[in-house]
Specification:
- The protein is mainly alpha-helical.
- The protein has six helices and no strands.
- Helix 2 packs antiparallel against helix 3 and helix 3 packs across helix 6.
Length: 124
């Protein structure tokens, strides 16, 4: 924890847990750490957790070992509703806005991680 950060308590912690419901504990822990440290290293585990939550149960790809060029729709089986759910949760967790026109240009895991990281950098 950096010296200026404060412990995450109360409503914000509950909001993050709610946004990440049904995500693995690792994704929730990364999101809570991010709130305190703003470390970019915590972004990818949250994104992967959100994507995994929205993937079909019978998906052939293991998100934990998927390469960055893995396509969100074609390879992971996300539909537009699942992708929108993941994006809305990411907006809540990271405090950013992702416009629909931006989302249309994001096709892979790397593109999604890079886009969120760049939004966070410009918001800082």
């Amino acid at each position: 924890m950096n010296p200026t950060s404060q412990p995450l308590v109360g409503d914000r912690q509950d909001d993050i847990k709610q946004a990440l419901k049904r995500c693995k504990p690792e994704a929730i822990a990364a999101a809570l750490r991010f709130q305190q440290t703003r470390s970019i290293a915590d972004v990818q585990p949250v994104i992967l957790g959100l994507i995994e939550r929205e993937m079909p149960e019978d998906a052939a790809t293991d998100i934990a070992t998927a390469p960055g060029e893995t396509r969100l729709i074609e390879d992971l089986g996300l539909d537009s509703l699942g992708l929108m759910e993941a994006v809305m949760a990411a907006e809540d967790v990271f405090g950013i806005t992702i416009e629909n026109q931006d989302l249309r240009r994001i096709a892979t895991l790397d593109e999604l991680n890079g886009f969120v990281a760049s939004k966070l950098a410009t918001a800082a």
